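We emphasize that the prediction below concerns an isolated chain of 485 residues; any contacts that depend on oligomerization or on bound cofactors are therefore not represented. The input was used exactly as deposited, without trimming of termini.
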Amino acid sequence: MMNDRYSSLLKSADNISKQLRELVKENKFFQIVSHIDADGVAAAGIISKALIRENARFNVRIIKRLSASEIKALSDGREKKAYIFLDMGSGQFEKISQTLGDKTTVFIIDHHEILTRRETDTILELNPHLHGLNGSSEISGAGVTYILAKSLNQKNTDLSPLALVGAIGDIQDKGPQRTFTGLNNDIILSDAVNRGLVKVVKDILLFGSETRPVHLALKYTSDPFIEGLTGEEDKCIAFLTNLDIQLKRDGDWRTLSDLNQEEKVKLYSALVTYMLQIGYDTKSAEQLIGTKYIITSEEDGSPLKDIREYAYTLNACSRLGYSGLAVSLCLGDRDKALLEAQNIINEYRQRISKYISWLKEPGRVKEYEYLKIIHGEDLIDDRMIATIASIYSRITARSENKVLLCFAYKSEGDGVKVSARGTDALVKKGLNLNQALRKAVTEMGLTESEAGGHDIAAGAEIPVGSEETFASYLNKIIKSQIGVD
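Result of the prediction step, given as a token string:
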């Protein structure tokens, strides 16, 4: 029997899918708009595949942020279109309603936190927060899109692995040993496993453990980011050699999956000891072992076989300007597309390593009472500042009482991109970054729609030169949220 907690969301999905199906019958053209990250791209892949199966006409647009100007630009010819916003839109409900909602049908399929419940005849919203469910941990944007696609056509259960890719991309593997919880586990993973599409295994979580030599898997691991090893190939080789772990056998490089159990235990123990010695907390070190999700239909050696690598690949492609390639991978394009993606992944890794090295330089991190502040200025690509915020927040997770606040100048137009990351410990104390950032921009005289996200991670856009003011407001708001006198 399906968990009663989910019945309201599933009923809403059924009602919305009926209206979506009616528009397909009317031969309506669908304008799909989704977010630039792995979750948004996976969501775009899911709805695209679902609409292809219905012989619907559509176009996909991947964007960094749904601003008021972006909504206005989308409004041309709105009487002839229906709109589907994925992994965004709930925070811009009023602006969407004002600009698009009077002459067309709009679907908002999102998982970000909302402030008030609202209904209109022309805007249909599917969001777990409207049904008492947590979109920060239980289901991602791709997951909500999957729930809708499954309601539209049961054949779409074969898209369940893509929904898990989105969940991993949004770091929703927060259960014991990096497992899924809530709808991610009870519906989406269940569908994927029952159809034989995903295999679940326990292992050391190094990047490329099935496909790359073990020293490169260690080098490329960024979740967690291991200072002194991540990005340092020579040091990774030395680390493994000191453990008497053979890097080659019969002339071939060995992968993590080639190591025997004794070697894996030795490697894991050494990594945990090393991380504790350089200042990581026990929780961060223990994240090295956990649950891997393997897509059975992908070829051995493919970066899309491990769901974590799949999410990383989508993120790399989309954030470096190849969102079309990322969506095509979700739709099943392989061969040439996969080779192109490999080159992009290499560039993405190099950029991350460069940015993290830059952050290690003295004076790069400024501290407030409840904030660690990084200003990437024009040195960190604003498309990647959220990624850097996530990686660096994991590096500094042992600083339990501070939020990481990152700035970067926008590459297009005037403004500053803001990314903030909290910790589970702070959320338990009352931290809600979605509300905090919204309140901060409001107190600065900006609109709430300039900010949004989740309790543990959120973003905003603010004018150039207002960074100190924003940080000051945010510091006070966080202090009040976590109950510090």
